[in-house]
Amino acid sequence: LFAVIFALSRQVFALAREGHLPQFLARTGHKSVPVNAILVSSVAALAIAFSREAQGIFVSMVFAATVSYVLMTASHIRLRLRDPTLARRFRTPGGIFTSAFALICCGTLLVSCMFANPKWSLAAAAALFLLLSVSAIARYYGLNGREFDGRIPSK
Predict the structure, then answer these.
(1) What CA–CA distance (Å, rounded) separates 80 from 44?
(2) Does 143 have pLDDT greater than 70?
(3) What tens digit of pLDDT does each residue of 92-112 get?
(4) In a designed cystine with 124, which of 15, 32, 60, 62 is the match (CB 3.0 to 4.6 A)?
């Protein structure tokens, strides 16, 4: 429960600060504390705590995190194959083989989540699909108000 409040509030704050979530979630208090993000995350954590489906929700959180790892490792493999001479500050030990191993492990974990709790795994997959669809539509129609130029935004 603490991890949901702590980690989720930081992620919500960072996403809002970069323009991917509503801006009121990026507002901070007088001591630079992201109060709105913490409150929204706390409400979500309380809903989890009071539900009778805490185990299922935990499985869906693991499923969603694993999907993000799958996307990161697949992106790493694609980048390394597409532009192997690109200058990088950090080179992954083992290169593509490390990412391929991680991708296989993540795939195994996704299948395990489906067997452990199919209902919540499918719910997480549907929620991720919905979020990705809304994000793609917003980007396509320029609803976030910014053009992506390929650079990482400054803090």
Answers:
(1) 38
(2) no
(3) 888 889 999 999 999 999 888
(4) 60
Residue 60, class by beta-carbon neighbours within 10 Å (0-12 exposed, 13-18 middle, 19+ buried)? buried
Look up residue 140 and give its amino acid.
Y
pLDDT for 103 equals 93
For residue 80, count CB atoms less than 10 angstroms from its CB and return exposed for 0-12, middle for 13-18, buried for 19 or more: middle
Residue 16 CA to residue 75 CA, distance in Å, equals: 23
Q: Give the whole-angstrom CA distance, residue 149 versus residue 72.
A: 20
Residue 123: CB atoms within 10 A of its CB come to 17
51: left (phi over 0), alpha (psi -120 to 50) or beta: beta
Instruction: Give the Cβ contact number of residue 34 at 10 Å.
Output: 21
Q: How far apart are alpha carbons 120 and 8 in whole angstroms?
A: 19
**For the whole model, what pTM was predicted?**
0.61
> What is residue 100's predicted lDDT score, i.e. its pLDDT?
94
